[in-house]
Amino acid sequence: MSRCYLIALSINLISFLTCDLTIAFDDLQGTQKFINTFCIDCHDSNSKEAELDLSTLGSDLQDPQTMATWIRIFDRVEDGEMPPQEATLPTRVDRTHFLETLSKPLIAAHQAEKGTVLRRLNAVEYEQTINDIFGTNLRLAEMLPPDGRSHEFENVGSSLSMSMVQLRQYIEAMNLVLDSSIAQTVNAPEPTHIQTNYDKTSEGERFIGDKWLKAKDGAIVFFQDFGYPTGMIRTAGTRTAGWYKIRVHGYAYQSNKPVTFSIGGTTFRRGFERPTFGYFEFPPGKPTTVELTTWIEERYMLEITPYGIYDEKYEIKNNGVKNYKGPGLAISSVEIEGPIIEQFPSRGHRLLFDGIARKEIEPRNPRDKEKSWYKPSFEIVSRNSQRDAEKVLLRVAERAFRRPVTANEVKPYLALFSSEIRKDSTFEDALRTAVTAIFCSPDFLYLRESIGELDDYAIASRLSYFLNRTLPDEQLLAVAASGKLKSNESIRRSESERLLNSEHFERFVNDFTDAWLNLREIEFTTPDRNLFPEYDKFLLMSMLEESRAYFKEQVQQNLPVETIVKSDFAMLNSRLAELYGIEGVDSPEIRKVKLIGEHIRGPYLTQASVLKVSSNGTNTSPVVRGVWVLERIMGKLAPPPPPGVPGVEPDIRGATTLRELLDKHRDSETCRTCHEMIDPPGFALENFNPIGAWRTNFRSLGEGEKVFDLVHGRRVQFRIGPKVDSTGQLKDGRKFEDIIQFQELLAGEEETLTHSFLTKLLTFATGREMGFSDRAEIEEMVQTSIQQNHGIRDMIHSVVQSEIFRHK
What we know:
alpha+beta; flat; Jelly Rolls; six-stranded antiparallel sheet
């Protein structure tokens, strides 16, 4: 693609992104009397105690800092925190007049500001939209720069920038998409079917009889889940990327209970990931088949690894594999079939070439077609290239722009096509350039939303990107075309229900929980193996599945908002049950487990994923976890530490607990107020270690009592450190002894939980932070939700029906 074209695209984007932000809200004079009477004595340039100088506070509400300060003033006066009780207090009439006078310019300023924010597709939305349009399965998000984040969310328009570098990467991404979706053969590739076993591999020749056992029925038996050799099977691999069906036949050997194993992919290429496709189990003695369909990249081999069986006494090494009586995993055979072609040619190919004559160029020697090296070439046969190109570009633009498109709107792209033709490009190459321009245009990269009430197509896009994380499907676009999506509440509800029940609902679950719970950073740190030898890949996968399954259950069953912090069930598999000490769960698949009596597991605050992302790899911090609870669950923004105040670092040697260090830290006047709010939720979670296991004592690598246990077949290295103290007192004076009492206190704050969760949903649904002008409607939604005992699913519907969702 030419440099001139790239510059033209960037100019188009810049002109689209440039908005007039000249808005003046200088008339705050109505508040001056109140401030002069009740505030200025403590908040002027002569006051050494107060942080806020009202004598120099500006009135330009376009300035974010000024706007935030005025909102802070409003909130403190409304809550009765200011003026303080020992000062001269205003009458109720004075206070009400001040709040009403101040609220008007704050509402107007926020309404003007939110109308100027443009929402770009973030990397995940871009990837899923492109793949859904073209029928590809490309990891395009990895090709793009990281998206900005506004608090939890990566789909907030004000944090999503655009640059020339990003534009170049969009162009590179589209080249890959077109290469992948345009057919390069006449007929669909034939899938291959491989059935093999470990006996047919070079590893089988080397290790059978030494480390592997060949059973009487011919199955190959593995006895350990770590070490060399691995379960790689060279004869079951892929040549091209695609969807593959995998079947593994086998059983649990010499075992009275099921044996768990993983199926994954491995490659000899350095730097490439080794994905795990899932964990499964074989019952004892009875031959069983496990089947799955998964995406596998090119040049990968399957790898099957037993889990949870160990030769802890080294009996195989001492007595030989034939004499070993411990449990093993028997693999009879392995099948891999694919790539499975959904349709040929692909959706993307049909989008570009339906109605266009694209024919194979016959080789000079017809016999060349019979050669293995032969690759066909194609040409477009067109009597009127302009007319044919316009027909294609109209179809592509309508799909890309998520709305009807006029011939006038595609004129620039048709002109680009003509320009490429004049440069002696082929029809197909010129069409590729014009199509790339469409998918690099503002109409595709941004959600077109006019200030005020959104039209039907804008609502359709909002709804689809909210609940399915991709562009609207044909049915939703048809409803938008009827003009009823904007005006008919029942139709909006029925379409929301349809999207909540669609195959793409999992995307909503994953993307929302990744942001809200910060699950995206589950692998940001790796727990210290010496301190936490229980941690492994199976546990990591189970952590994510638990939280996502729990949220999915909340939505599908319309569970009440209090289940965010309190429940009588958990979503568990055998790996999590082992970590949590819960009996009776023996399957690697996540399922709903009823919890009886007093228990500590279930909701998010007790889930291993949350406990891990709110820790680091070696220790926990009540401050970090306290901030997590405040911001993610209670919707309260924790203030940043004062400038120049160092953070409190824990001591992994076990000599001093972080709680003891924080007690000294709170002696400082500048730290006490904030830590009285932040620390208690963190203290309530102190009985959970960084991987989510229950503890009564900290672990240390220095001082403490020695431990002589085995974990995963290895002797532990950590020592038992100081006792854990999970007691605390909330800022309002309420006390708790442990996590159970703390959860009861949180569950009682129904209004706070509802307000926080609704605000998270609204932010995710609209792609913008909620602000001052949204407060009244959010409060009304909260009260309605409480009165009607709304569950999580009802709250999603409430968001879709709101004025906030339907307006920009």
